[in-house]
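Much of our argument rests on the idea that a fold can be written as discrete symbols. Part of our work consisted of pairing the sequence of a single chain with a tokenised description of its backbone. We regard such an encoding as a compact summary of how the chain folds. The amino acid sequence and the backbone structure tokens for this protein are reproduced below.
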Amino acid sequence: MTNQIKIAAIGVGRWGVHLLRNFLAHSQVSVVAVVDPHPERLTAVKQQFNLDKNVLLTTQWHDLKQVPGLTAVAIATPANTHYALIKDALQQGYHVLAEKPLTLDPGECRELCQLAEQHDLILTVDHTYLFHPAVERGKTVVQAGKLGDLRYGYATRTHLGPVRQDVDALWDLAIHDIAIFNTWLGQVPVKVQATGTVWLQGEVSREWGVGSREVTHSPLPTPHSPSQGLADLVWLTLTYPDGFQAYIHLCWLNPDKQRRLGIVGSLGSLIFDEMLRSSPLTLLHGEFEQQGNQFIPVNQSQVMLELEPGEPLQRVCDRFVVSILNNTPSEVSSGWVGTQLVEILAALTASLKEGGKPVFLNK
């Protein structure tokens, strides 16, 4: 087939296996290799997807250099491995789709974006929610002014696991809601604050892929405990240029799973509740009419907004392929978009270390 691109899947754990599934189903993609340090995962995906015998299955990243005509790699490995893997991939001439976050350091992110541009390669970050039909539709609702004057936003993202060992709950979970707020508002925060608490984990975990060495996380002290480790509970405040504030609650040890984000305005609220799978986006109309010293709710109604069908991750993969074929970076989720989000997370981490001290972002 013309325009067929050869892709290698790097990491086939909990999320990487879904990237592999989507690329295997794509008509313009040929999956030619799968890399994972765990042999049992390679065996599992070979059986699950009935992979062709010509697909290279290896535990070693550097074996990809033996694959002729490799076009791109999809990297779904622990975040603390991203920089080395992505840099090597770009230097080898591969287009890259990387699981979020791009890296754990804004300077590294900028370096990778510049490297991709120097080599005329596509660098895309898998910010899946930015391709969700509810997020796309929500952007049109907010920016059309249907909520009136915007007052504040809120989000809750909780579940009982998975508990990551490479990043804390802030870096694992917050990036989704920050990306959605930025997209709906058409702005990025100018000031951030974060507080958090550590219960579960210590300092050390094992790094993936480039070599199996022990790595020590930067300690994240909490206002309630001198212990070091990865924050399990985090509270965030984002302040935008026009004064709008968004409040985010993140935790990976709540038995109640919540994926809810809302923006409240003078004429109503827009709610994205991912747990309501049949109708996750709701526009709630309602405002106050003042009668004397009383405020009376009026014009109340509820509309479940219709959404285009489609799996968000399938859209991520398809647009990555289109970006490669057209040699055009993603406007939605380029490496530079990923860098901007990492800059925000780094500022939040600085605030977290200082027990919630406001941190201003340079613009």
